[in-house]
Amino acid sequence: MANPRISPHLRYYPEDAGKKLGETWQGQRWLREIDPTLATQMIRIGHQDYYVYEPTKLQDGNVVMPIRWFTRSSGSGAKAEQKFWAEPWRLEPVSTDEGHRGYIVNEYDTIEVSAHSLLLSMPQMIETYVSDNLPDPRHIIGMYTAHV
Fold it and tell me: Which residue, 41, 30, 49, is CA-closest to 122?
């Protein structure tokens, strides 16, 4: 990675290339099947680092938990550009009977969001959750998983 001649040729993120499969980083095993903790675990946008398994606030106000980062081409030909995407679980703000506020992770509710829709990473959410009238993002109360 430190070699400036080699680094531009390395791929660190899987790519969603649709039906096209021309390179190993475009394979479904890397994109969908590999354990997210073994894949690339963060992306940097501006001065914020977004990590898998940490709550993230989107520009539309929803809170999600990214579990995977990947790239997808926008445009075609020589003007094609790789853009970052996330595969997150939706988080639902809840209050317990004891008055605690936190989030339920809806593991069954996986969506895709463009990295451009990310607004706040976990550290910024911790600084702003009170003024945003949201639960503390460090309080995960539970998870709902799909029953198969």
Answer: 49
